[in-house]
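not sure who needs this but someone in the group chat was asking about SET domain-containing protein from Exophiala viscosa so here u go. i didnt clean anything up, its just raw.
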Amino acid sequence: MDGCWVRPWVGSLCHYGDESQSLIEQYLSHYPHYQEPNQTELPQVELQLRSISRRIHHNPYLIETRIARAELLIKLRFPELAVSDAHKALLLTCRATQDTWPGRSCYDLYILKRETSLLLGQALFLARCFVECLDLLLGISQQNYVLYGPKKEDYDTLTKSTRRALRLERQHHWQDNSFREAEKEYQDELLSKGEIKLVPYPWIPDLLFRRTMSTIEDAKSELQRLSNGRVTIEETQLRERLQHGGQLTLDQDAYGLFAMADIAAGSKLFVDRTVICANSGSSRCPACCADLTGNRSTFWASEELFCDAACAGRLNAVCQLGALYQWSGYYQRTHSRLSQPPKDEDQALFFRVLAAVHKHTRDHSSGHPLESWPINRLTAGYHSGATRAWSYTDDVCAPLEVLEKLGGDIFEDSLSEGWVLETISNRIATNARGLESNEDQIAAINPLYSFFNHSCRPNVAALDDEMNGTSSVRIVARKDIARGSELFISYLSNEELRTSYENRKQLLSAWTGGDCQCMRCAHRRERPDSNAACVQEEPECDDSNKAIANDSEEEEEAVMTNSEDSDDESDETSMEF
Ligand SMILES: C[S@@+](CC[C@H](N)C(=O)[O-])C[C@H]1O[C@@H](n2cnc3c(N)ncnc32)[C@H](O)[C@@H]1O
C-alpha cells in the first residue's frame, strides 16, 4: 500500500440509493473524520495512507497504526480493508492482554480494545455485514468494558443503526420476492452476507495489476504446444467494446484465445489440465481433480488423499491443509462459530490457492504474492458495477487463520494484507471453473481455459474430460473456424443461452458487471426493436457448453451434431497473423 497511487480512486462501498444506504450515509455524517475526501483533499489523504503503511511495514505489531489506517480506509470507503486492519488490531490487543506485553498497562489495552471493537463494528456496518456487526456488538455488550465510559454513546448509536438497517434489509428482501419461497436457512444466509464492489485498488502497481509479458509468453507457448500450433493467446477483440462500455480501465490487460489455422467443426483443439481444485465430496485429488473412487491407487500425504506422489508434490503446500479441517487455534477458543471447516468448494478452493501462493512466496522470497503461480496467470477482472457477497468470517477471519496455520506471520507477510487477499479472491471468482459430478460440486483452476472469453453464440465447447483419469477440460470446435478468429466459449448453460437478452445480461453480470460484449448481445443492443421477441429471433445455441458448470459427456454428441447450424456464422471478425 506504500506504492504510488496509480489509478483513479474509487471506494468499494456499494451504493444502492435504498433506505439502508441512506441510513449508512446518515450514520457516517455523525463522524467528521469519516467525511469522504474531495478531489483536492485526496492527495493529502493518499500521502497519509502511504506514510501509515510505511510505519506498519516497519513495525507490523503496533496497534495504533493499524487503527489509524482502518480509520483512513473507512474515510476512503474501502470497508473490507478497514475490517482487515481493525481485525488485526483487535487480535493484537487480545494477544497483548493474554501475554501482558511489557510497557503496556492493562488500562491502555482496555481502551484500545474498546476503540478497536467499535472501529471493526463501523467497518462491518459499512460493508453491509449487519448480522456480523450486531453479533460483534452483542458479544461486546456482554463484557463490562463497554457499559461505561466515553464511547458508550457511539456503541449505542451503532447498535441502533445496525438494527434498523437489518430490519430494512429484511423488508427489502420480502418486497423484491427473494424471500418469498426461500427456505429459512437461505434467508439467513442472504441476510448474513454483506456486499462490496470489485475495484482495482488505486495503489496496485502496474506490475501486479497487469500480467507480465513473460507470464503471457509462457501461457502462449504452453497453449501452442498443447494445441499443436493451432491456438494462441492475443489481445481480445472485445477490448475496444469493453473499454467503450466502461468495463475495462485503460491500463488493464484483456486477452483471449485465437485460431492459428482453419479448424474443422468437431476437432479437438487441446486439453487443459486442472491444477488446483476443491470439491464438496471427498473423492477427488486436490491437485488434478481426478476421481479417486474405485480401484485407482492413491497416495496419502498429511491427511490429504492425492492420486499419486507427483500430484502431492506439485501441490505440496496443500498437504498441510488437511489439518485445516480440524480448526484448532486462537479462534476456536474465542469465537467458536468461526471454527468451521470450509463451507463450500469455492471457499476450499480459495484456501488451497492461498496455500499454493504461500508456498510459492516462501520458496521464492523475492516475489510478491500476486506474481506467484497460479494467480499471476489470472485476469484481474474488474468490471464497473460488479459486486461480490462478502463477510467478515469468510473473507477476513478464515483466510488469516489458514495462513497462520501454514506458518505465516499474518501481521508481517504481504500475502496477509487485506488488499492482497481481496485481489486473490476476486481473481478466483472471475476465473474459476465450476462443475458438477455425481452431485459433487467442484471448483477448479485451469490456467489456459481461464483465458477464454464468453459469447452468447460460442464457437467452441469446453467438455469435462475424465478420460485420462484427471478432470481436465477438453476444447472442441463447434463449427468450422477460420484462421485468426477469436475462440469463445459460453459461460452459460444451453438452456440459459436460449433465454432473452435481459435474462442473459443478468446471469452474466457476475462476470461482466454490465453489458455482455459479444456480437449477439451487441447486435441486440443496436437493434432493440427488431429483436423484441428475441428468444425466437436469436440463433439456436443447442450445443453450447457451460463455462463455469461444465458439460456432461452426453452433451458432447449434441455439440458435434449441431455444429453446422446455418445461423452459426462466426460472430467476431477474424484477424491476421
Ligand atoms: C475468465 S476471464 C476471460 C479472459 C480474460 N479476458 C483474460 O484476459 O484473461 C473472464 C473476464 O473476461 C471479461 N469477459 C469475457 N467475456 C466477456 C463478454 N462477453 N462481455 C464482457 N466481458 C467479458 C470479463 O471481464 C470477465 O470477468
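also Residues 236, 238, 242, 247, 253-256, 379, 381, 383, 430-431, 450-455, 511-512, 516-518 surround S-adenosylmethionine (CB under 6 Å). if thats useful
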